[in-house]
Design a protein that fits this description.
Largest sheet of chain B: 7 strands, mixed
Oligomer: heterodimer
Number of helices of chain B: 0
Radius of gyration of chain A: 13 Å
Helix content of chain A: under 10%
Largest sheet of chain A: 7 strands, mixed
Shape of chain B: globular
Order of helices and strands of chain A: EEEEEEEEEEE
Number of strands of chain B: 11
Structural class of chain A: mainly beta
Distance between the termini of chain A: 36 Å
Chain lengths: ~110, ~120
């Protein structure tokens, strides 16, 4: 099974900050990676697919990069509504797996 | 507007069974793979199962193989998850999700989830 390790697991930041979350895969997954945002009590929301393609309607302050085994999600200028938990997901092989999540909180 | 609405969750005893449903609307259901993903209380997301557009292929996480069955009825625009031999560790919110393809697979729409609690 492909393991995804996100870092950090917890991140404290302020409105206006630039933040980066890393997702490392245990083997090469090409660009078969997606990023999701989840707020408490809500379903996950797709942000990025194919490692770097912004989903329609998602603000341009979100961006993704990487391929192979190392990927990043960057939020260029944090807004109050961005404080949430973020997950990466690999869809290269079954079983599909998610990272453990990165909880982004207001400093 | 794409909508996915799960139902069928509830409290069940260990060893019991439950059938979850996901009613889809706003898109051509038979053209999309579908998936179940779960989230235990306070934990992360865990993929459970996928099913191809015509139901011909099904995939499961190891922990539910032989106990859970994913199925679909394209005439009713509905996705199902039959869960047997339930265990305490199956307690979670279960989400259905639409699987889309543009360069890669990804989950572009999710339902609101239905809570399954396995407890005596």
């Amino acid at each position: 099974d492909i393991q995804l390790t996100q870092s950090p697991s917890f991140l404290s930041a302020s409105v206006g900050d630039r933040v980066t979350i890393t997702c490392r895969a245990s083997q090469d997954i090409s660009s078969y990676l997606a990023w999701y945002q989840q707020k408490p009590g809500k379903a996950p929301k797709l942000l990025i697919y194919a490692a770097s393609t912004l989903q329609s309607g998602v603000p341009s302050r979100f961006s993704g990069s990487g391929s192979g085994t190392e990927f990043t999600l960057t939020i260029s200028t944090l807004q109050p509504e961005d404080f949430a938990t973020y997950y990466c997901q690999q869809l290269n092989n079954y079983p599909i797996t998610f990272g453990q999540g990165t909880r982004l909180e207001i400093k | 507007e794409v909508q996915l609405v799960e139902s069928g969750g509830g409290l069940v005893q260990p060893g019991g069974s439950l059938r979850l449903s996901c009613a889809a609307s706003g898109f051509t259901f038979s053209s999309y793979r579908m998936s179940w993903v779960r989230q235990a209380p306070g934990k992360g997301l865990e993929w459970v199962a996928n099913i191809k557009e015509d139901g011909s292929e099904k995939y499961y996480v190891d922990s539910v193989k032989g106990r859970f069955t994913i199925s679909r009825d394209n005439a009713k625009n509905s996705l199902y998850l039959q869960m047997n031999s339930l265990r305490a560790e199956d307690t979670a919110v279960y989400y259905c999700a639409r699987v889309a393809w543009i360069q890669i697979w990804f989950y572009d729409y999710w339902g609101q989830g239905t809570l399954v609690t396995v407890s005596s």
